[in-house]
Amino acid sequence: MKKFKQIFSLLFISIFLLTGCSRIEKNIENKVPSVNNTQGENKSDTDNKENEASNANQSKLKILSKDANTNETIVTGSVSIDEKLSIEDKLNLVISEVSKVQFENAPIKCLKIKDNIAYIDISEDQNEKFWSNRFFQGSTGANITCYTLVESLLQREYKGEWIDGIYFTYGGEKDVEFDHLDTNFFGNIIKR
Questions:
Q1: Regarding predicted confidence, which is higher, 57 or 167?
Q2: Global pTM value
């Protein structure tokens, strides 16, 4: 009888955990479209904008991130760019959207583009320490933050004229360490 109770308890806990995890996944799936909806677009508006973009010599660049539970790449937003703009102007549009969609408008700035390498500075807001206290905290958070910045700014799938790499600084400094951050993130060129 005691073994039966143990097996039943183990079975109950397993089923409870499996159902709880599947609900979390469904909630995550439901949240991704809501991010796009907060940008004021529904599916028909998106389709119309895509048609207009292709007709007006524009491209849509994706804002990429990772799902914290599955580690899969997800698209959290997009930005339309005019192909006639300079590389720096295109990059600044992407930076602005990444900051807004992923990092609560935390400061990210393209300082310059030299030899087709974009020099990007991440700095702290004077009122809140977004980067150090939130986005670079914990191994998962730091990993997602780095992935989002690198992949969204490098735009590896984009076929138009773009940068060849990025070089990050933090508050103008290249020798910066956070507990859960790869030591090569700041102060090194990351190639496309």
A1: 167
A2: 0.68
Q: What is the biggest distance separating any 2 CA atoms in the chain, rounded to whole angstroms?
A: 76
The answer to the question of residue 130 being in a domain is yes
> Is the backbone of residue 116 left (phi > 0), alpha (psi -120 to 50) or beta?
left
* 93 in any annotated domain: yes
When the pLDDT of each residue in the chain is averaged and rounded to a whole number, the result is 80
* Residue ranges making up the domain that contains 166: 39-191
Residue 31: the pLDDT is 44
Higher-pLDDT residue of 191, 15:
191
Q: 176 in a domain, yes or no?
A: yes
Do 192 and 162 meet the contact criterion of CB atoms below 8 Å apart? Answer: yes
Confidence of residue 38 (pLDDT cuts 50, 70, 90): very low
Say if 128 falls within a structural domain: yes
